[in-house]
Amino acid sequence: MPCAVTKPLDTVAIVGVGLIGGSIGLALRERGLARNVVGIGRRETSLALARDRGAATATTLDLAGGVASADVIVVCTSVADIARHVLDAAAACPLGALITDAGSTKTGIVAAIDGRLGRGVRFVGSHPLAGSEKTGVAHARADLFVDRLVVVTPGTTTVEEDIEKTSEFWTSLGAKVQRMSPEAHDEAAAAISHLPHAVACVLAKTTESAHLPLAATGWRDMTRIAGGEPGLWTSILLANRGNVLKGMAEFEKTWAALRQAMERGDATAVSTLLEEAKHKRDAVGS
Amino acid sequence: MPCAVTKPLDTVAIVGVGLIGGSIGLALRERGLARNVVGIGRRETSLALARDRGAATATTLDLAGGVASADVIVVCTSVADIARHVLDAAAACPLGALITDAGSTKTGIVAAIDGRLGRGVRFVGSHPLAGSEKTGVAHARADLFVDRLVVVTPGTTTVEEDIEKTSEFWTSLGAKVQRMSPEAHDEAAAAISHLPHAVACVLAKTTESAHLPLAATGWRDMTRIAGGEPGLWTSILLANRGNVLKGMAEFEKTWAALRQAMERGDATAVSTLLEEAKHKRDAVGS
Quick one: pLDDT at residue B227? Predict the structure, then answer.
């Protein structure tokens, strides 16, 4: 265990104190991992709630001021804003601070930042797979990251020590860490998160309102993520557009095979496809 | 409250003591609603488990013998077998017994039975929307139907008294009952259950095994029902083939709109679609 995260940090700044940022703040404080947690946001009402919930010890609307004495900065804003917020934070934070993020896509963000940070400031991208259809600090939980996976995505210039420090930050919150390239992350995230989101939204939108009173566990489970914030998800889908479109094309192939089997009334073909689906699903567990 | 279900029934026979049949047996016994619960099945091992779990007071492999003294018979077998089991039960049960079922499709079953029961035997179709990807009496629960919806689907010759008696049977287990024609049920069930099942299976099958280790809540929730028993679900999808294919065609229209918006990189169109999906989802609740 090489470095600082195992003893309490002095100050962690969190840019964007919503579900993810707020949960980081709660976890840091509950676990005694940071003396100060500075919450940085755009709306005073959210920041007041973050203070009330104990997700931050201090808050500010001013990014530069908020990161001025931070050892570690975590940018938890929309994927469309993350690179800009990282660069802004890097210009205002102490020499040698470590910046990471919580964005659901990584290639574009890492590329926009890689090699552009001066003053010994380090950035390592992260993606905690711990989201929810719920948003806002009101739903933040200190245990949100416990046993969840966080993918850490070093860029081409990232040094080992910074990867380790970032990984330790997340494991200190209870998460498991997996290291992937930004590109491999985005391909996997498309398959496991972004394509499913698109599918859930298409299913929810397709369902006629007249049929909704019959919605039971199956429909509810399948469409839950369609309740997520449309603006955030539009940014994510478009930031990972190439991979999502590739996933959609794969989905269409399987879909066409099922539709054709249904049109033929081919029980064997339908059943085989359902068996293969079950096999994949059973490999993952509940 | 017109009739017998409010005082304990003497004997209820359950044909197919799996998740649904076993849960009916447990609920009947826990609530003191039947003196005898006869479990009828095809495998002695399942029947032994049903007895051990208390889901049946007696069990038999012989359908005719099992229903011989039943006041109420509930057929909980695969949709492909239900009509045959109802007709077999009707030929062997006491005069005036009431038969219902728990099949996920109704039009074909009701049509195959309507007008073919002699000897004062009555049949009213039912569909408890309380399934799960889990199967077998091992997962049965006495509270499976509490606050769940059961659709009761009278045929053209069904008399009011029988609909009420069937409805009371389910409400006595804690369920809410909605009355629909078999045709309206099957259309709604396609939208709310059978199409989602097809979508979940296509998504699960499409996901590359290499990406499964990253599967978090979203993918797990969305594909959970794909873990259901392929044989049972093949029967359901094919029994409701026309409605499922209609639903698939509607899904394809929304899907194509999303894909085209993604191809154009059209944030407004993507966001509008996601807003509409969220609106539908939020109308249902968690």
Answer: 95
Q: Count the Cβ atoms, other than its own, within 10 Å of residue A209.
A: 9
CB-nearest to A277 from B204, B213, B218 is: B204
Tell me what the mean pLDDT of segment A160-168 comes to: 97
Q: CB-CB: which of B192, B227, B262 is closest to A281?
A: B227
What is the pLDDT at residue A119?
85
Interface predicted TM-score (ipTM)? 0.91
Question: pLDDT tens, A104-142?
Answer: 999 999 999 998 998 889 999 999 999 777 889 999 999
Structure tokens given for B215 = 């599967």
Q: Which parts of A54-159 fold into alpha helices (H)?
A: 63-66, 79-92, 107-113
For residue A275 the two structure tokens come to: 């068996």
User: Looking at the predicted structure, is the pLDDT value of residue A201 above 80?
Assistant: yes
Give the whole-angstrom CA distance, residue B135 versus residue A115: 55
Of B129, B217, B254, the CB nearest to A216: B129
Q: Please state, in angstroms and rounded to a whole number, the distance separating the CA atoms of residues B41 and B62.
A: 8
Separation between Cα atoms, residue A85 and residue A4, nearest integer Å: 24
- Joined together, the tokens standing for residue B87 give 């007709």
Q: Could you tell me the two tokens for A276?
A: 């293969």
Residue B200's closest CA among B251, B154, B162?
B251
Residues facing residue B177 across a β-bridge: B150
Going by the DSSP 8-state scheme, the letter that residue A211 receives in this structure is G
Beta B149-153 vs B122-128: how paired, if at all? antiparallel
What pLDDT is recorded for position B7? 66
> What are the Cα distances from residue B12, in Å, to A179, B67, B71, B125, B172?
58, 8, 6, 16, 13
Asked if B199's CB is within 8 angstroms of A233's CB, the reply is no
Contact A198, A188 (CB under 8 A): no
Q: Which residues of A touch B211 (CB under 8 A)?
A: 187-188, 191-192
Residue of B nearest to A180 (CA): B214
**Residue B175, both tokens:** 């369920």
B271/B56 Cα distance (integer angstroms)? 53
> How far apart are the C-alpha atoms of A89 and A49, rounded to whole Å?
23
Assigned token pair, A3? 């470095």
Instruction: Tell me whether residue B125 is exposed, middle or buried, using C-beta atoms within 10 angstroms of its C-beta: 0 to 12, 13 to 18, 19 or more.
Output: buried
Is A238 in contact with B270 (CB distance < 8 Å)?
yes
Q: What is the DSSP string of B67-101?
A: TTT-SEEEE-S-TTTHHHHHHHHHHHSPTT-EEEE
d(CA A129, CA A150): 6
B2: helix, strand or coil? coil
